[in-house]
Specification:
The protein is mainly alpha-helical. The protein has helices at 3-30, 36-60, 66-74, 76-98, 102-109, 116-140. The chain is elongated. It starts with a helix and ends with a helix. The relative contact order is 0.18.
């Protein structure tokens, strides 16, 4: 995968991550006590976005080491998977908010749409991507 394609994929992921973070902030503002899992998920997505921003900046400056070239080739799949996962999460959150009457939607804004276990599974997925992209970023800085 060439650095330009990786940077473009990273930017797309960051855009979707930003939308999810905004939805999470909306839930935070609508309720006094947001479950710990929701805060963790939002945090993981924000960290993932930050790591991808750093990786994209590093690739655009073309100061990454030769070891990073090998890692870049291996990132095409994870970049596409991460993008797909975040889009799926975003669509799920948006669909939950939009279905039903206005009165029901007010109630939905106050409640996180996923069960605790499902939210934990999303946290685990985001942690995996964050770890993979962090390793590539470390190699890129060598």
């Amino acid at each position: 995968m060439d650095p330009f394609s990786l940077a473009l994929g990273g930017i797309t992921i960051c855009q979707v991550a930003g939308k999810i973070i905004q939805l999470g902030i909306g839930y935070t503002q609508s309720t006094r006590e947001l479950p710990t899992e929701v805060r963790l998920l939002i945090s993981e997505i924000a960290l993932l976005s930050s790591i991808l921003n750093s990786l994209c900046s590093s690739l655009q400056s073309e100061t990454y080491g030769s070891a990073a070239h090998i890692s870049l080739d291996l990132l095409e799949g994870p970049i596409q998977e991460c993008k797909g996962q975040l889009e799926e999460l975003y669509e799920s959150l948006v669909k939950y908010q939009g279905a039903g009457s206005k009165l029901k939607n007010i109630g939905k804004l106050l409640k996180w749409p996923m069960k605790e276990q499902e939210t934990r599974e999303w946290i685990t997925r985001m942690e995996r991507y964050k770890t993979a992209f962090s390793m590539v970023l470390q190699q890129a800085e060598l």
